[in-house]
């Protein structure tokens, strides 16, 4: 070999070694943004949203179009289960693990300290030969690790990737392989594995269109299944009351309490006093106002909650002597009538009153 050829070969080898290489093993773990304008706008809207809600957010949902769908087909179910928890939806249609990794590094979590994060991602990485099952597992685990680093006090509900396609298929089998390994990521202390994919399938393995109309994205009924499937675990993490499935919008048809009611409660002399009551129900939240007399001011319905057929709220009333009274009301919807109890304190004594409200 001539000296000139040897020098040329050595120079090429050195040049090859000096080429920039990625620090990441493959595409599923390399944080990258997408170039779509709408994607950038949605990402920026997330940053504004988390800046507004801050530490009030109790739970965040992270994922792709299936998660984004909580704002569409899942809107009513979201209102029932998650709105009162100041939940934040961080789902973007078409996202893969690498896009979520980039978003989490670029503002989507800034200022948040949620008690829980619900993560379901990876189905878009599974298209064709884009990423292998092992690579997708790596990508999801990288997101879990990033969440643990950025939100060390947040519990993670790691969801199995939902099944897709109408019948048994290579695509569905690939997701099953991913889930089999991905579940080992959970330690059941900080990261919890939740798998309810079987609820989206019939006994013969087919996927009903009333749950996934396109055999990938959920219907309102499908979102109800999602919410019901995680509610027990989520309520334990949040330390709040479990939302009852009977109050799921679109599932059981529980009556909306929104409207004008006639509220009746015993007065100081024990005689019934009737007054107008206006209620507005938004999922599990209840707001409104009540007016005691013609010349009296409206009193706000405070801390209103709906849980199945159960309701509760607080009313505060200022008295002429400068003191105030607080009424804690609880009740139940029976047919078209609300029946309940009101607790208050009068002259140092506890008082319990029966009340009713009719449309």
Write the layout of secondary structure elements.
Layout: H1 3-18, H2 37-53, E1 59-63, H3 65-68, H4 75-81, E2 88-91, H5 97-105, E3 116-120, H6 133-150, E4 155-159, H7 170-182, E5 191-194, H8 220-238, E6 259-266, E7 272-282, E8 285-291, E9 298-307, E10 310-318, E11 324-334, E12 337-346, E13 349-358
Parallel strand pairs: 1-2, 1-3, 3-4, 4-5
Antiparallel strand pairs: 6-7, 6-13, 7-8, 8-9, 9-10, 10-11, 11-12, 12-13
Structural class label? alpha/beta
β-sheet strand percentage: 25-35%
Which fold does the CATH topology of the largest domain refer to? Rossmann fold
- Distance from N terminus to C terminus (CA atoms, Å) equals 99 Å
Trace the largest sheet across and list its strands: 6-7-8-9-10-11-12-13
Portion of residues within helices: 25-40%
Class of the largest domain in CATH? Alpha Beta
User: What is the CATH superfamily of the largest domain?
Assistant: SGNH hydrolase
Oligomer: single chain
Order of helices and strands: HHEHHEHEHEHEHEEEEEEEE
Q: What is the helix tally?
A: 8
Molecular structure report:
The chain has helices at 3-18, 37-53, 65-68, 75-81, 97-105, 133-150, 170-182, 220-238; strands spanning 59-63, 88-91, 116-120, 155-159, 191-194, 259-266, 272-282, 285-291, 298-307, 310-318, 324-334, 337-346, 349-358. It has two domains: 22-247, Rossmann fold; 259-358, Quinohemoprotein amine dehydrogenase alpha subunit, domain 2 (Lipocalin). The protein is 29% helix and 28% strand. It is of the alpha/beta class and 359 residues long. The termini are far apart. The strands form two sheets. It has an eight-stranded antiparallel β-barrel with strand order 6-7-8-9-10-11-12-13. Strands 2-1-3-4-5 form a five-stranded parallel sheet, with helices on both faces. A hairpin with a 5-residue loop joins strand 10 and strand 11 (324-334). It contains eight helices and 13 strands. The radius of gyration is 27 Å and the shape is elongated.
